[in-house]
Design a protein that fits this description.
Helix content is 46%, strand content 21%. The protein has helices spanning 22-31, 52-63, 70-81, 98-104, 124-153, and strands at 7-11, 17-19, 36-40, 47-50, 84-86, 93-95, 109-114, 119-122. It starts with 6 loop residues before the first strand and ends with a helix.
Length: 155
């Protein structure tokens, strides 16, 4: 599979390194990016991570805006200027920089959340709260979409 799927929680070691889950490492190897591209998420205290496919999505998003426009500058500052390219050691570990840990509120444990072309890195308790909120919002969305289908079928 060429997508990041599932959720894993790992502890940082005494040197501040964390093992990228083996299934995620496999996807990164097939992607061909040297290292791990990380940038702050736009709307949560978490970190988007991945390889070439994540970088392609960022480039595609930026291409929607006129170069040098304020929106382009704001997005590029966040998605590129605040990004980090982390080196993955032979054991599949990365050292999380302080800026990333501070942004996500990471202490000694991280949760990796697959999202297809990318994955996110979360502080585990923050992720549990976010996941609960996401499930509630998806249930509401499903109810709204189901109501549309019923209304559309009644015509």
């Amino acid at each position: 599979m060429d997508e990041f799927v599932s959720t894993f929680t790992n502890r940082l070691d005494s040197k501040g390194r964390v093992s990228i889950p083996a299934p995620f490492r496999s996807v990164l190897m097939r992607d061909g990016f040297e290292g791990l591209y990380c940038c702050p998420t736009l709307d949560q205290n978490a970190v988007d991570a991945g390889g070439n496919r994540l970088r392609e999505q960022i480039r595609a998003m930026l291409a929607l805006f006129e170069p040098f426009s304020e929106d382009h500058e704001l997005l590029s500052t966040t998605l590129i200027g605040e990004s980090e390219i982390l080196r993955v050691d032979p054991e599949g570990r990365v050292a999380l920089p302080e800026a990333i840990k501070a942004h996500a509120g990471i202490g000694d444990t991280v949760t990796f959340v697959g999202q297809g072309y990318k994955f996110q890195i979360w502080e585990p308790e923050r992720f549990l709260a976010y996941r609960a909120e996401a499930k509630n919002r998806v249930r509401e969305l499903r109810r709204r979409l189901g109501g549309r289908r019923e209304a559309g079928g009644a015509e």
